[in-house]
Amino acid sequence: STGGGGAGAGFSDFFDSMFGAGFGRAAGGARSGGFEDVFRQSGYGSEKGEDITVQLKVTLEQVYNGEQVNVRLSNGKALKVRIPKGIAEGKKIRLTGQGGEGFGGGSKGDLYVEVRYQPHPNYTVDGKNVELNLPIAPWEAALGATVSAPTLSGVVQLKVPPGSSSGKRLRLKGRGMPGNEPGDFYVRLMVDT
């Protein structure tokens, strides 16, 4: 190389010829100090941390109300996570920068919390719709009655039409899982004989 640049200038000239003028130069036009500056300028040596996925079992009530729950990671760290109202099972909540450590000054990875519903003793879920099996007496089915039915939003009074048979489904519109288009709540009548 020519001029007082020394060995670093030779490397810079080499990289300039391969990658374009200015690649081997530091800020302000000065020659770089060699490989370290070249790798830093090109992004080599730093890497984003690993993304981590964990599963979180939640109750239907927590999903319905959009509650905040604790997530404990394998490294012992605990985080509070707000469950979006009505989130579907299997969907993931992304927590930016809560994943693995970056390498060489790289940013942290992300943490993905995959939502899993805990089995519920009373309700089953199908998409946004929720269903309840409600036992009723034979005379309530035959004559018709008003019965109490527990829903995720509280107890409602439900009219059972006269002559109802076991397995008949009654729909409560918009009382299923919340969302832009909330689901429906179905009550399946089970005549208790």
Widest β-sheet, arrangement of strands: 6-7-11-10
**Using DSSP, what is the number of strands?**
11
Number of helical runs? Answer: 4
Distance between the termini: 99 Å
Summarize the helices and strands and which ones pair or pack.
Layout: H1 6-19, H2 35-42, E1 52-58, H3 60-65, E2 68-72, E3 78-82, E4 92-95, E5 111-117, E6 123-126, E7 129-136, H4 138-143, E8 145-151, E9 154-160, E10 169-172, E11 185-191
Parallel strand pairs: 1-5, 7-11
Antiparallel strand pairs: 2-3, 4-5, 6-7, 8-9, 10-11
Characterise the protein shown here.
The chain is α+β, with helices and mostly antiparallel strands and 193 residues long. The protein contains 4 helices and 11 strands, in the order ααβαββββββαββββ. It has helices spanning 6-19, 35-42, 60-65, 138-143; strands at residues 52-58, 68-72, 78-82, 92-95, 111-117, 123-126, 129-136, 145-151, 154-160, 169-172, 185-191. It has a 4-stranded mixed beta sheet with strand order 6-7-11-10. Strands 1-5-4 form a 3-stranded mixed beta sheet. A hairpin with a 2-residue loop joins β6 and β7. The protein is rod-shaped, with a radius of gyration of 31 Å. Residues 1-7 and 22-32 have low confidence and may be disordered.
